[in-house]
Design goal:
single chain; 226 residues; mainly alpha; MetI-like fold; 9 helices; 81% helix; elongated; transport
Length: 226
């Protein structure tokens, strides 16, 4: 058996691929669901913290900065393990799926808050003054004038960060989440053949190549024109 034949037998075995393809497809569905939930929760919480920070309450801002810095500094895997194995010691149990969701949501929230805050800070002071000149108070000025511009500024870096975080769904395999990687590892263990891992890699390509292309289009669409 040549080297290529040995490689094909181990990584491209059609019988093993046919047997475990349904498992990988099920894992793909779990990955998509987890990624969507992380994006929705993470971006919403990040925007809420950035808006709250804009009110300029010093003690509140210190708390936000501390929380954001902590979750930006900790690796997502460490947070997942702490939540999954640590919360039961405090009398709170959480499935691997929801532990992964919570961990990745907190990480995305932290990065999203900083990106949204940078967008708010980048809006010229004259925009605030224009709102006051129109007789608007702080909150209407923030929501109707400043925030739409800040979100447009934040979109390009936010897209990249969101894609990076959603690829972290693979970390859920550490706590027995049957997403793509978890399903591929299970298939590899049952079959004694790494072909399911190849299917998992193909599933990630099928899932994330369109996401990356869409992200590039969004970045171009929302980029400021000089």
């Amino acid at each position: 058996m040549t080297g290529w034949q040995a490689f094909a037998q181990n990584f491209l075995n059609p019988e093993v691929a046919a047997q475990y393809a349904p498992m990988i497809l099920a894992g793909l569905g779990v990955t998509i669901l987890l990624a969507v939930l992380v994006i929705l929760a993470g971006l919403t919480l990040g925007l809420a913290l950035a808006v709250l920070r804009a009110f300029g309450l010093r003690v509140v801002n210190w708390g936000i900065i501390f929380i954001v810095d902590v979750f930006r500094a900790l690796p997502p895997l460490v947070i997942i393990v702490l939540i999954y194995f640590g919360l039961p010691a405090a009398g709170l149990s959480m499935s691997g799926f929801w532990a992964t969701w919570l961990a990745l949501t907190l990480v995305l929230m932290a990065f999203a808050e900083e990106i949204f805050w940078a967008g708010i800070s980048a809006v010229p002071q004259g925009q605030w003054e224009a709102g006051r000149a129109l007789g608007l108070h702080f909150l209407p000025t923030l929501t109707k004038i400043v925030l739409p511009q800040a979100i447009r500024i934040a979109v390009p870096p936010l897209v990249n960060r969101t894609i990076a975080i959603t690829k972290g769904t693979a970390l859920g395999s550490v706590v027995a989440v049957s997403e793509i990687l978890g399903a591929a590892q299970s298939g590899m263990a049952f079959s004694g053949n790494p072909t399911p891992l190849t299917l998992g890699a193909l599933a990630y390509i099928v899932l994330f190549i369109p996401v990356v292309i869409a992200g590039r289009w969004i970045e171009t669409r929302f980029a400021w024109r000089r």
